Amino acid sequence: MENASKALIIAASVLLGIMIISVAVALFNSFGGSSREIMNEIERGKIAEFNTQFFKYYGENYNTETGEIEKIKITSHDIVTLTNLAKKNNIEYEVQEQNSKSDNSYYIQIDVKNRKNLEKLNEEKLIEFLQENSYKENTESETKYYYIENIETSTVSGRVIYVKILEL
Asked: Is 60 within a domain?
């Protein structure tokens, strides 16, 4: 009888130990999933913040003076700002040598009118671009405006990979 009661106590101890371990594993999995979700949410926030730098120049606005909906106007200075942002991104992700947009890459391509890959221009060429495209032809005071026709984002990373800009 004495051995039977000791065997029951040992069996109960083993069962209790297994239950404690099972609860610990369940809690670990639960908290692990939550931290993974939090990290994914933080990453999505960073991507959205990055993309906002491009999308703030894209779309349409309501003009209160004329009562019409107009494309968001950008200047050549805004284009250079976007180009520098793309160049910085391409250097950061070490994808400077790419020649065209790819859904699998972090490379950002900027095309303006008939000029492709504006992001590959050096500082001198960007200054020339500013000088040639800041004002309308034959004027020194009438600003030339552009608009973003298209922005593409990667289906893989969710980041902007292509910006097409046309003259307004």
From this structure: yes
pLDDT tens for the chain, 168 residues long, are 678 888 888 888 888 889 999 888 888 877 766 777 888 899 999 999 999 999 999 999 888 888 899 999 999 999 999 999 999 999 998 887 776 677 778 899 999 988 888 999 999 999 999 988 888 887 778 999 999 999 999 998 899 999 999 998
State how far the Cα of 146 lies from the Cα of 15, in Å rounded to an integer: 73
Tokens of 31: 């908290």
Residue 76 lies in a domain: yes
Question: CB under 8 Å to 35, separation ≥6 — which residues?
Answer: none
Range of the domain at 143: 56-167
